[in-house]
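User: Before I run my own analysis I want an independent prediction to cross-check against. Here's the chain; please return only the structure tokens and, at the end, one sentence I can use as a sanity check.
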Amino acid sequence: MIDHEVLRVFCGPGGGYGNALGVVRDGAAVPGERDRQAVARELGFSETVFVDDPERGVIDIYTPGLRLPFAGHPCVGAAWLLGVDRLVTAAGVVGVRREGVFTRIAAPAGWAPPRTLRRHATPAEVDALAVPPPGEWIYAWAWQDEAAGTVRARAFPGRGDGIDEDEATGAAALLLTAELGRGLTITQGRGSLIVTGLTADGLVEVGGRVRRAG
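Assistant: Structure tokens:
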């Protein structure tokens, strides 16, 4: 198996939970898209990042089944690991900043892959959802406290690639923030935490805590 690191991105307040991210620091060891796809499938994380230039922050992102020009939790994890002030993805340059314990990335909402944002009446309804059959990529959410901007969410990729539910999903949080037009604090999955905001130049920020797994 290829050498890689595992991070947990969007950890909860106590450092637990978070979505696992595989990072292959030596991207040159797996130079082709076909081989990278095979490695991502073998590792089995919801996303795997290949680092092509650690100083410039050039990365390449894959799910077990496809290459992604941009994705939120891989960008947040890679930014934290590499310590850079920007990332270069297939979609374009992603801004990075740090705020206390949070690493934040900023990108246009249009870079996020399409998601079905499905609102529910209460957090309890979201908690009670069963995993739907493959098909739509569904981000189920409900207000915990609308005035405070707190949200309960769960994510169901629906790709049929073995990832039935994403523990924490930056791109979907980015889309929800853009749709609602405000910063949010999202508790997703079993207890992961995502913070979002809007920038003065029309981008959406997504951030959270990152830890090494184990």
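Sanity check: The CA atoms of residues 103 and 207 lie 5 Å apart.
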